[in-house]
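Many introductory courses stop at the sequence. We go one step further.
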Amino acid sequence: MIRKLMGVASRAVYQQAPPVRDEAYRRWIRSFPCVVCGTRHRIEAAHTGPHGIGQKASDLSCIPLCADQHAEMHQGVQDFQERHGIDIPDVVAMFNALWNERKKAA
């Protein structure tokens, strides 16, 4: 009530934009081999970015992982990166750059 009388917004001042949802991007990611083991079987678009309770990270944070590697990643991202010698943010940036180039060419 006081907020309303003083003209203060009742909602949060900073609201994060909703995560990007792009089925075409996820389908494109699944067209690559697993970035860890190289298999082309059971490839999933694995979300790697920050997420909240009940909400996945942006689709633009996806990397191609086989089902086994995807499950392993969820057991601990830092250990996963060290064990396999990959830097997930670098891999995400590489796929984002490729996607952007692809969209420009279209």
